[in-house]
Specification:
This protein has 539 residues and is α+β, with helices and mostly antiparallel strands. The protein contains 19 helices and 14 strands. Among the domains are: 231-300, no CATH class; 394-430, no CATH class; 438-527, no CATH class. It has helices at 4-13, 21-27, 42-50, 54-68, 80-89, 96-109, 117-123, 131-145, 226-229, 231-250, 266-280, 310-324, 340-369, 394-403, 409-415, 454-457, 477-486, 509-524, 529-538; strands at 35-36, 72-77, 110-112, 147-153, 166-170, 175-178, 188-192, 196-200, 204-208, 255-259, 296-300, 378-382, 492-497, 500-505. Strands 1-6-7-8 form a four-stranded antiparallel beta sheet, with no helix packed on it. It is elongated, with a radius of gyration of 38 Å.
Length: 539
């Protein structure tokens, strides 16, 4: 058993970002106590991407707006194994079926909490931001630069020491990692903005995208921006737009204006060019008549927009950028594929491929860095069941649930995000009447009970419709068949009793016993049928 000192040590080091000494020796052997330079030009991604490019702006906003509508909740962990199964189930492609199944696992793994300190900081991370604006900013920086920095601020002493009271998203394009050498690769973070300000490493939650670039300087400690892979597509998109603007301004003209009455001096040529630009260039002067004092000729050596396939290159670059961010191009007003069904599937794919994976990455990092500061049993999670695009048609869900007899009514309510009822009848399993155990076919028939009274053996069975001492035994075939119909079946079978034939319901005695058991169970729970009918109607 671990000592008290070991437990305290584990509590301190459990959620730190310090890596093992052996790993540091292999990876950070040449790392000094200095700034770890980021080879990415994050300011270019922000300025040339989000601030200048309409496609990047639209893609980022599609993702952040969709993500900001997903609520965040705080739970208490009650079953670690079920929690692992829940995490595994929600880590892949999520649809309506997965949501219903994962909700059932979630109910056994986690208990939802209310009004905790963790709720307060998530709902209002800082005085200037709500949760929606906070999560939007965090995701936007991540999608642009591949890095997300959350700065936690709280008291250093007192009862609330270690608990953050405010959280801020730091601008990732001006953040730097400061190394403490081989054995402390991330000593602190520094923000280069209106001066220099250092922040201890444990107060920063750095959520980075995968970066395979290991050059020995620690540059892989920064995440790789998606726009690093799509830089040429971004440049193509910007240049296509800029070229289109120039074509409109110049009326697609590109060539040499020459004088046929002798050579122009350099000063005259410049004056003529400036005069032409100020008087005839631009959309306001389109179609104007050009009048010159000299006879001029025009030699065209430019290509038209159609000749250089400007529109095709622009559309192709949009698709490339959408692929980089896993966002369907139909959502960017692609008219060729914007039918109703395509748009419906595109919205669903936006959540499945772009939004939910981003939210899961943030969830796991917050559970590593933030939740343990308020309690080891706390767990932060997002509720994906509220996403309308992932909800299957309700009639299909109700039909599936109504046939799932192995789930109690209250579990069905929980999987569909309804509150559980306190009625104990809704915590019972309701098995269909036509289901029997597999080993039921091997049941041995019990011998008929012997008649105790000797005189009863000599009764003329042909004169009696019901055989005394034996349930559902009749002297006529018609009466046995009528009893079978009453029990929900048909047919009859025959037994011999002291040389006389007796008739019983159903074709075999096994069928009779199964039907009788079902009949008696239905009578036993008959008083519950109205409540169950009302429950199904409400579903």
């Amino acid at each position: 058993m671990a000592s008290i000192l070991d437990r305290f040590k584990n509590l301190i080091t459990k959620n730190t970002q310090q890596t093992a000494k052996e790993y540091n020796q292999a990876i950070y052997n040449w790392l000094g106590e200095s700034i770890v330079w980021n080879p990415e030009n994050d300011e270019t991604y922000v300025n040339e991407g989000y601030r200048k490019n309409a496609t990047i702006y639209s893609i980022i906003n599609l993702i952040t707006k969709a993500a900001s509508t997903i609520p965040v909740n705080v739970y208490e962990k009650v079953n670690e194994n079920e929690l692992k199964r829940y995490q595994a189930m929600t880590s892949g492609m999520i649809d309506g079926t997965i949501i219903h199944k994962s909700n059932m696992l979630k109910k056994s793994a986690l208990i939802e909490l209310q009004d905790t300190e963790l709720h307060q900081i998530l709902e209002r991370p800082n005085p200037a931001q709500s949760y929606a604006s906070f999560i939007s900013e965090l995701i936007a920086f991540g999608k642009l630069t591949g890095n997300r920095y959350v700065y936690g601020i709280g008291p250093d002493t007192g009862a609330n020491s270690g608990k953050y009271k405010e959280m801020y998203v730091m601008p990732s394009q001006v953040m730097e990692i400061i190394s403490g050498g081989m054995f402390n690769p991330v000593k602190e973070y520094r923000i280069q903005y209106n001066g220099s300000y250092s922040i201890p490493a444990d107060q920063i939650c750095h959520i980075k995208d995968f970066n395979p670039y290991y050059d020995g300087t620690g540059s892989h400690l920064y995440g790789q921006s998606p726009l690093r892979a799509g830089l040429r597509s971004l440049t193509t998109n910007n240049e296509a737009v800029q070229t289109g603007v120039k074509y409109l301004q110049n009326q697609t003209a590109r060539g040499v204006l020459m004088s046929e009455e002798g050579d122009l001096s350099e000063v005259q040529a410049q004056q003529l060019k400036d005069k032409f630009r100020s008087t005839y260039q631009g959309s306001n002067n389109a179609g104007d008549i050009v009048i010159t004092p000299k006879k001029l000729s025009w030699v065209n050596f430019g290509l038209s927009a159609s000749d250089i396939s400007l529109l095709e290159q622009y559309n192709a670059s949009i698709k490339d950028l959408c692929n980089i961010y896993a966002v369907p191009s139909q959502l960017l007003n692609n008219d060729k594929a914007s039918t109703y069904n395509n748009m419906k599937e595109a919205k669903k794919a936006l959540y499945q491929n772009a939004v939910i994976p981003e939210m899961l990455k943030i969830r796991d990092e917050l559970n590593r860095w933030l939740a343990p500061k308020y309690g080891d049993k706390y767990y932060i999670d997002f509720d994906f069941s509220v996403i309308p695009e992932l909800q299957e048609e309700m009639d299909k869900v109700v039909d599936q649930m109504s046939r799932a007899w192995w789930i109690t009514p209250n579990e069905k309510r929980a999987s569909m995000s309804y509150a559980q009822e306190e009625n104990e009848a809704l915590n019972e399993f309701y098995v269909p009447a036509n289901l029997v155990p597999i080993n039921g076919v091997d049941l041995d028939l019990q011998p008929l009970p012997a008649l105790e009274d000797e005189e009863e053996k000599n009764i003329n069975l042909k004169n009696k419709s019901v055989v005394p001492g034996i349930s559902d035994a009749y002297t006529t075939q018609e009466e046995a068949e009528a009893r079978a119909e009453e029990l929900g079946g048909s047919g009859f079978h025959i037994h011999n009793l002291d040389g006389e034939k007796i008739f019983m319901p159903f074709k075999t005695h096994i069928e009779y016993e199964e039907a009788l058991k079902t009949y008696n169970e239905e009578k036993k729970y008959k008083h519950l049928f109205p409540k169950i009918a009302t429950y199904k109607k409400n579903l």
